């Protein structure tokens, strides 16, 4: 089945909502995430969380990797809810992607630090927002140079922090 939107990695949608410069750098293969302790601890938490839940990891089209939990839900595990809008949109994109393929699921986001689980359902408004975001992502990726540094509090925790601010100071 032809998808209504281009297929993209879910993480790109996540970065689109966090910082368009981050999205651009990541998409161009400038990867520094392995330098980030936050990402490393995220992986450890992901591997050790909720060991008793019945789950299956599924890779769809070599692009979207999902935890399927108890059949009805797909799940994302996040350290905290600081980026909840971006996390929510990423999971909604997965629900959208599956729906386009004829599979309807609901989503769960486990926020580990807060020990909180949020249930996510895809609405028509969400679908429109996702379609708009995917177009926005395509526009960002067509830029010849990265979007401006955003000078936000989150920059200090970003894997690209040195890259962005050292480059700025030169
Ligand atoms: S350091 Fe800030 S401006 Fe640079 S990519 Fe990260 S969030 Fe964006």
Automatic annotation (TrEMBL):
It is an enzyme of class 3 (hydrolase). The lineage of its organism: Bacteria, Bacillati, Bacillota, Clostridia, Halanaerobiales. CRISPR (clustered regularly interspaced short palindromic repeat) is an adaptive immune system that provides protection against mobile genetic elements (viruses, transposable elements and conjugative plasmids). CRISPR clusters contain sequences complementary to antecedent mobile elements and target invading nucleic acids. CRISPR clusters are transcribed and processed into CRISPR RNA (crRNA). One of its GO terms (molecular function) is iron-sulfur cluster binding. Gene3D superfamilies: 3.90.320.10. Keywords: Antiviral defense, Exonuclease, Hydrolase, Iron, Iron-sulfur, Manganese, Metal-binding, Nuclease. It comes from the Bacteria. GO terms for biological process: defense response to virus. Pfam families: Cas_Cas4. This is CRISPR-associated exonuclease Cas4. Its EC number is 3.1.12.1. Its cofactor is iron-sulfur cluster; Mg(2+); Mn(2+). Belongs to the CRISPR-associated exonuclease Cas4 family. Residues 9-165 form the DUF83 domain. Mg(2+) or Mn(2+) required for ssDNA cleavage activity. It comes from Iocasia fonsfrigidae.
